[in-house]
Amino acid sequence: MKRLGVLLSGRGSNFRALLAATREGRLAAEIAVVVSNVSDAPGLAHARAAGLPAFFFDHRGRTRDEHDAEVGRVLAAHAADLVCLAGYMRLLGRAFVEAHAHRVVNIHPSLLPAFPGRAAQRQALDYGVRVTGATVHLVDAGLDTGPIVAQRTVPVEAGDTEESLSERILALEHQLYPEAVERLTSETWRIEGRRLIFLAR
Ligand code: GRF
Q: Is ligand 1 within 6 A of the CB of residue 31?
């Protein structure tokens, strides 16, 4: 069974969706460790309440590489095969990304490459797109730029606010992320240029 390390900074609803999927047998993997850079992140409290190994590492007062290395050590100590970013509001440095090449995955609330970075739902509303969605992608050293694993769309409705659109996308994220992680951990795949290709079994 593959072991997942989850990095989060806040609410942790995607972490909870992953955890539920592992416990309900929709995701044949286990969450080995949860790490946060925010001491009072609700997601971290939930991990502790769920009985998972959960760690806080403050990024303040450290360089990016020093902080990444601390996180990397605890992931290694818990033998994480795949690192799932779940609202982790820190860019990972090149050294971490290279040491974990093709082993870090993220979920982003837009159809990348549209609207990378923060407030993707606000960006989509401001642009006036008619559809947006969510993207699961491997993490490289850029901001939301790695090879795409899965994407799904939602409509933007006439009266949408940032809140209503975010809520519609979040419900989709909670389905898409466990499904994409299940494929990544159970299927064979390779990277060709920018493309992630699942190989027929
Ligand atoms: C989600 O919208 C996710 O796509 C983005 O950050 C948000 C995290 O929410 N990367 P949560 O902490 O998982 O509830």
A: no
Catalytic residue among 46, 100, 108, 137: 108
The number of CA neighbours under 13 Å toward the Cβ of 51 is: 2
Q: Is 174 in the active site?
A: no
Q: Which two tokens stand for residue 102?
A: 């093709």
Q: Is the pLDDT of residue 109 over 70?
A: yes
Q: Ligand 1: distance of its center to the CA of 120 in Å?
A: 11
Token match 């389905």: residue? 175
Nearest to 34 by CA among 72, 75, 64, 70: 75
Q: What is the pLDDT of residues 85-94, one digit of tens each?
A: 999 999 999 9
Residue whose entry in the numeric block shows the structure tokens 């939930």: 46
Ligand 1 site, residue 12, Cβ cutoff 6 A: yes
Q: How far, in Å, is the centroid of ligand 1 from the Cα of 16?
A: 11
**Domains of the chain (ranges plus CATH)?**
2-198 (3.40.50.170)
pTM beyond 0.90, yes or no: yes
